[in-house]
Specification:
flat, about 80% helix, single chain, mainly alpha, 4 helices
Length: about 100
């Protein structure tokens, strides 16, 4: 599935299930989902006690769904957005990224 298809699929699902939340509710949900990823990652690396099994794939999926919903509410074209960002990283950070990865 490409990004425009993803945005359409999320839009369809949300509209079939009562509609969008406002951007501030979605922003709060993004923070919550990112926190769940952090918690799962910490548990998976032994940095926190494992109280429940983790499903990092599912948490990343939740974050992606919510990010797409957030973009849809704000009218952001994710395909154009990521293309601009990749170009920005290429122009600004390409050499530094390579240098940093050689050190690891």
């Amino acid at each position: 599935m490409n990004l425009p298809e993803l945005q359409t699929a999320v839009d369809t699902w949300i509209r079939e299930h009562g509609g969008y939340w406002d951007e501030f509710h979605l922003l709060a949900r993004l923070v919550e989902e990112l926190g769940e990823i952090s918690s799962d990652l910490q548990r998976g690396r032994g940095l926190r006690p494992r109280s429940t099994p983790t499903d990092l794939d599912a948490e990343v999926g939740d974050l992606l769904f919510t990010l797409v919903a957030f973009a849809n509410v704000l009218g952001i074209d994710l395909d154009a957005c990521i293309q601009r960002t990749i170009q920005k990283y290429s122009d600004r950070d390409g050499a530094a990224w390579k240098a940093n990865n050689r050190e690891q």
